[in-house]
Design goal:
39% helix; five-stranded mixed sheet; alpha+beta; 634 residues; elongated
Length: 634
């Protein structure tokens, strides 16, 4: 048929559809008064049934233990999609226009007028409708290029493409379908599911468990694309055979007869199964509970990959956390899919890092860092002797009361140097004091200084830039700010000497005011206090029975309880001023600090001893020469 005739046929089809819709509307208006009463009753009953079904569904979702168990443990299936059993040919067939099939020649005069109007005004609409009707469902949603690139056939689809086909409302784009796969929220079941009657599900549970499958007594979402057998019986529950299941990934392929299920984590608190091995470095845990943790980040390891362009693979702290931290116990509120660090340290810096396991703990810790409630202490080795100006010094009591720094206010002979210099146009404040001086042959002024640093703000490279630019003593191993002097280069071999050794903050769980955890947190805090009191009584009785006393000293005036770990010391107490539960964790300096200081001091002493010996030898040689000359003259 010529192109012009095809265009006319498409215009007539579009006009016929518009006319048929108008005729049907008139017919409905004529019969509206006669059937309005019966229709209203039916609509009300239908709406009531839908509301009851939604309520029961919500109850089933809350009672997650009755839902089919997904993979890994802690996930539960809330919705599943059964694919065609023979092929996906229906997704590749062109969609026929419903208007053309409903075209009839029996129309009245008004319908004819509507047809003429549609012909004159609907040319563009007819063209669009004809172009869309000639394409298949998969071509409309993905496009021909994507079909060829993904190698989609009526017998083989990619998992994101299959999700778009069965539920285009939930997954309207390929990126959204791919995102849910990356999160591990799709369970792929090879082959069709078995459906068991609700009354007999309990009796068949034992047999299903023997085959490593899970049977659910709950009625959950069943997509309209499911097969008729599953929809015909609302009392039937599916059986997911875990031997045939796997967590769906973007690269997985789907075949006819497979079942895709949507799963979510519901209170299980188990970290997902990871697709990589444990990173080849250790991450010691200083403190841990069901809601958050404090870990030690080694030097040379990044906290997380900043972007996808040039990452570090699994050589990150984020990749190692699921292997070193315990999952929260079952029933913990709003567990994160995997533990996440709340802040970060530079790659060459070592020290304590806060890690959240739940969303309330993540929000609480982030707010504390934003409000500068967290108090951190660093230890560093600087090149040279930092100058101390009396006009820039404050006492420990002033630092504690006016600046809120974590220092001992009772230390009378302790003074802190203040650096208040803006960085990148932002206010920045750092307090520091010299702790130890060690001679070094290659250091500036032949001296290294161990300093204790307490930053009040957290600007980019704040400690490194303040010490290098405003104290004129860069950190040892700081290749960016040490000035690249010949002597500084000789001290770069062991990396950057900067470590976060101490942190004090409000406990993110016991002080959490989130509505989902506040009541349980208060009960757990009271239980923790009772356990500590009982432990103290037992220790006192043990001391009496053993006939010895252990002297304990503490700089804090409030009652506290300590929890020792193999890597550091953790202390939890109730602050009477703020009525907040505080926690303080402290670790020892890494071994490389003391080793480096002793090595530099030994080299300095050895070199000076050789110099003294050489000077003495020269004096002896000079005396011998003079004595020979005197003897010769005689």
């Amino acid at each position: 048929m010529p192109l012009r005739e095809q265009r006319i046929v498409r215009q007539i089809s579009a006009a016929a559809a518009a006319a048929a819709a108008a005729a049907q509307s008139k017919l409905d208006n004529l019969t509206e008064g006669r059937e309005s009463e019966d229709d209203d009753d039916g609509d009300d009953q239908e709406e009531m049934d839908e509301e009851e079904h939604d309520d029961s569904l919500e109850e089933d979702v809350v009672s997650y233990t009755s839902l089919p168990e997904g993979m890994p443990k802690g996930f539960h299936v809330i919705e599943h999609y059964s694919l065609p059993t023979t092929s996906f040919q229906e997704y590749f067939e062109p969609s026929l226009s419903a208007s053309a099939s409903s075209f009839t020649s029996s129309m009245d005069d008004d319908e004819g007028d509507d047809k003429d109007k549609a012909i004159s005004n609907g040319n563009d609409e007819g063209n669009d409708q004809a172009s869309s009707s000639s394409k298949s469902k998969i071509q409309i949603m993905l496009g021909e290029q994507a079909i060829q690139r993904l190698q989609l056939t009526p017998y083989n689809l990619s998992l994101p493409a299959a999700l778009m086909m069965v539920n285009p409302t939930e997954f309207p784009s390929f990126s959204q379908a791919r995102k849910v796969c990356r999160k591990g929220n799709i369970l792929l079941h090879r082959g069709p599911l078995l459906f068991v009657e609700e009354s007999s599900s309990s009796s068949s549970s034992s047999s299903s468990s023997s085959s490593n499958s899970t049977t659910s007594d709950a009625t959950f979402k069943n997509n309209p694309s499911n097969n008729s057998s599953s929809n015909s019986n609302r009392n039937a529950v599916p059986v997911f055979d875990h031997a045939k299941c796997k967590v769906g990934r973007v690269k997985d392929r789907v075949f006819p007869g497979d079942v895709m299920a949507r799963q979510v984590r519901m209170g299980g608190g188990y970290f997902p199964v990871l697709g990589y091995k444990k990173p080849p470095f250790e991450v010691p845990v200083v403190y841990e509970d069901d809601h958050w943790a404090l870990v030690y980040k080694p030097a040379g390891i990044v906290v997380y990959t900043p972007n996808r362009q040039g990452g570090y693979g699994t050589m990150t702290l984020r990749a190692a956390l699921p292997f070193v931290l315990h999952p929260p116990k079952e029933g913990t509120y709003s567990v994160l899919r995997r533990p996440a660090s709340v802040h970060r340290l530079d790659r060459p810096t070592s020290g304590l890092v806060c890690v959240a396991k739940t969303k309330p703990a993540m929000l609480n810790l982030s707010k504390q860092f934003h409000d500068r409630i967290v108090q951190k202490t660093y230890m560093a080795i600087v090149n040279g002797v930092p100058l101390e100006y009396q006009e820039r010094q404050i006492s420990a009591k002033q630092a504690y009361e006016t600046m809120g720094v974590d220092v001992d206010p009772n230390a009378v002979d302790q003074y802190w140097n203040v650096i208040e210099e803006p960085l990148d146009g932002q206010w920045a404040l750092t307090l520091w004091r010299a702790v130890r001086y060690v001679p070094s042959q290659h250091a500036a002024n032949q001296c290294l200084t161990l300093v204790e640093i307490k930053p009040k703000t957290g600007r980019f490279h704040q400690i490194r830039r303040h010490m290098a630019w405003h104290v004129q003593c860069p950190l040892i191993g700081d290749v960016k700010y040490d000035g690249a002097h010949p002597k500084a280069r000789k001290l770069r071999d062991r990396g950057l000497f900067l470590c976060a050794t101490r942190i004090t903050l409000q406990h993110p769980y016991y002080n959490n005011d989130h509505e989902g955890v506040v009541e349980q947190a208060q009960r757990d805090w009271k239980q923790f206090q009772q356990q500590q009191q009982q432990q103290q009584k037992e220790e006192e009785e043990q001391e009496k029975n053993d006939s010895f006393w252990t002297a304990t000293t503490s700089s804090d005036t409030v009652s506290d309880s300590s929890q020792a770990s193999w890597w550091g010391q953790t202390k939890i107490w109730l602050d009477p001023k703020t009525n907040k539960v505080m926690i303080r964790a402290e670790i020892d300096l890494p071994a490389k600090f003391e080793s480096f200081l002793q090595h530099e001091q030994g080299r300095y002493e050895k070199f000076n001893n050789l110099s003294e010996q050489s000077e003495q030898q020269q004096e002896e040689d000079e005396n011998t020469r003079q004595s020979f000359q005197e003897t010769g003259n005689t």
